[in-house]
Design goal:
The chain is an all-alpha fold. 77% of the residues lie in helices and 0% in strands.
Length: 272
């Protein structure tokens, strides 16, 4: 499953980078007040982080009421809530540290920081998918099936927020913003079809848990890079390089996150 994700993500990222092109010029929407929007995001995302950690505490106290507290479903939901908490917390810190617009610089640091924080926040959509294993852990199978399909619609709407952030910061044209989810969907569906036809035995009941670990492993270096970005941007040699090529890193990170969410969606439907 993890190998399949890496292959699918690599193909989707390559397609997205070809469309983005190495010479794309990042130019943010002049009406986009990144500082004000980021400040409002901090309050919202901080509240979600509090909700996530409260959910973890509640689930731990309810462990005695779960038929199999050490089973795959309950372990998965706990892991997803923990990763969601870390994601919300780190995203709020990224939004809180978005820089002010500086005139006369070649690299728009504030736009880059906001785009990275927005992608990190979208990645925490993983926490929504925790509802499915949560219901399964308490043997509420009918509501689990219903929610697994409702989350598809929520995912589509959620991407709209990310697409808006990427476009208004200048990191994605309208064309690229439309193609990013198409590439991710095609890569994800191709994996599902190939596994279903050629190797259905590779499907695992622990796929969601494995992907949760992948989300953490992807999120940690992405967060680290975003935190040191202001330092790198001040370098006389790195600044121009970032101005010319950082859009490729943002597009690649966004595409990797979308493919990961697609694989999680497959896993909760038992197709991965």
């Amino acid at each position: 499953m993890v190998v399949g994700y890496l292959i699918a993500a690599s193909v989707a990222i390559a397609a997205a980078l070809v469309v983005a092109g190495p010479h794309y010029v990042v130019k943010r929407d002049p009406t986009f007040e990144i500082g004000d929007v980021s400040a409002r995001h901090v309050t919202i995302v901080g509240g979600l982080a509090g909700f996530a950690v409260t959910g973890v505490i509640f689930l731990v106290t309810q462990a005695r009421n779960v038929p199999d507290p050490s089973g795959n479903s309950f372990t998965t939901v706990l892991a997803m809530f923990v990763v969601a908490y870390m994601g919300y917390f780190s995203s709020s810190l990224l939004f809180a540290n978005v820089s002010h617009l500086t005139q006369g610089t070649t690299f728009d640091l504030a736009a880059a920081q906001y785009a990275g924080a927005s992608i990190s926040l979208f990645s925490v959509f993983l926490g929504w998918f925790a509802l499915v294993p949560l219901f399964e852990a308490f043997q509420l199978t009918r509501i689990a099936d219903l929610v697994s399909w409702l989350l598809i619609g929520a995912l589509v709407v959620g991407y709209g927020q990310l697409a808006s952030a990427l476009h208004r910061t200048g990191y994605a044209s309208i064309r690229l913003a439309l193609l990013l989810p198409i590439f991710a969907s095609l890569a994800t569906l191709a994996y599902a079809v190939l596994i279903g036809l050629l190797a259905p035995g590779l499907r695992s009941t622990e796929a969601t848990l494995a992907l949760t670990h992948v989300a953490f492993l992807v999120g940690v270096p992405a967060y680290a890079v975003n935190t040191i970005l202001p330092i790198a941007a001040r370098g006389p040699s790195l600044g121009p390089i970032l101005a010319d090529r950082w859009h490729l890193a943002v597009v690649g990170y966004a595409e990797a996150s979308m493919v990961l969410i697609g694989f999680v969606l497959l896993s909760i439907h038992g197709l991965a």
